[in-house]
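Sync notes, pocket subgroup
Present: LS, DG
LS reminded everyone that the earlier model was apo-only. Rerun requested with thymidine-5'-triphosphate included. Inputs:
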Amino acid sequence: MDYDFYLASRSPRRVQLLREAGYRFHCLPADVPEVVRAGESPEDFARRLATDKAGAVSQRLDAAAVLPVVGADTDVSIDGQILGKPRDRADAVDMLLRLSGRAHQVHTAVVVRRGDEQAIAGTRTDVFFGRVTRAEAEAYWDSGEPADKAGAYAIQGLAGRWVKEIRGSYSGVVGLPVFETMELLRRFGVEPGMPR
Ligand SMILES: Cc1cn([C@H]2C[C@H](O)[C@@H](COP(=O)(O)OP(=O)(O)OP(=O)(O)O)O2)c(=O)[nH]c1=O
């Protein structure tokens, strides 16, 4: 076998971050419904979904195939309220105007699971946005970038221009906190190839 674990994801960002970290893995998408429960905090929501994604893929695997499964989830929240992925242009513009000139939080949880064994880690990052005008938000939607992103933006893309400051994990905002993920995988005996 030419890989060391399964990634329960369709996210090209997670794939890229793990590749850059030097891992060899195989993607098996987990299609888990992303619906917030009444009273659920942004941190708990990310943890539950990361757990469900890793769990869904684990269940599909042969119990004898003992490679670990990694699942992750990222959510954006402001004033404790979770902003999902935008439904349409108007929704994305509303989200971006809400984020304008303020700080918001990005929670990412990562779960590694092998059989009944499971470990979880999470990051919370505060992101400070400068002012975003309606015209900028509309033009940004038209670029195509926000459509599949929590909070309707990508820090690693065009939205980088609005980011005044971040406190926490940059890779966590992009979708997978690399440092914490490496620590979890090490506990399961998975090491990346060394960068040369
Ligand atoms: C805030 C932010 C989110 N995102 C992305 C990361 C995630 O892919 C996405 C949040 O959605 P998720 O539901 O965490 O992940 P996903 O549906 O893209 O992928 P999968 O469930 O198959 O693993 O938003 C960025 O790429 N940049 C950012 O700055």
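DG: The chain has a mean pLDDT of 96.
LS: The two ends are 23 Å apart (CA to CA).
Action: DG to write up.
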